[in-house]
Amino acid sequence: MPSSNSRALQRLGWGLLWLAMAGLSVHFLLAIHAQYERVDPEHYTMYWARRGWLWLHIGGGVLGIVLGPLQFLTRWPKARPRLHRWLGRTYIGGMLVACAAAVGLIATSPAPAAITTAFAGTALAWLVTALVAMIGIRHGNITRHRRWMTRAYLVTLAPVLFRLLLPAWIASGRAPTPDAIALLLWGSWTIPLLLHALVLAACAGWRSARSSTATGAAPLP
Hints:
The protein has helices at residues 2-36, 41-44, 51-70, 76-79, 81-107, 113-138, 142-156, 158-171, 178-216. The chain is mainly alpha-helical. Helix 1 (2-36) runs antiparallel to helix 3 (51-70) and helix 5 (81-107) packs antiparallel against helix 6.
């Protein structure tokens, strides 16, 4: 049946996307571990004097990156709703710690205003998307909750995407100026959110077209 095939393709698409996010997250976490496992000024560079804020930011962010994919397993919420809720709360708590530590890093940062503003924008984007998601579930709107939690996790993955965009930018022969870094920081979460909106719009249009086709089909003899 076409409907069964479309659902199977949709599950396959989400499964591949989930694997891609998980793979990129693992690569990012390994890179972070390699960079900061040796606690000395050489490896921490400008973060050495602010390593307390950095550890809190990384710790909370790692918790969010690791727990996020578990929340998107299709049957998880229905099969284990209590575990789903507690993992969700832990994810939110970890990201709140990361955002609070981001404030400390921004307040003590010697970086230009363009970079600190972009960094602050990322933290604010996560807070807004997560807040809308929590309001949605408090009002029993599961669809709204899922969509906005997806958006919140896409913002959570912003550092992962940034670490891919920056080397690509440098490899293209362009200098990593403060304005360029700020642009990449903004793009690391606005681009995924835009793609998410486009996918939702395409899916809605596809469902509407199928519904119109089914409604207008001639009855069988």
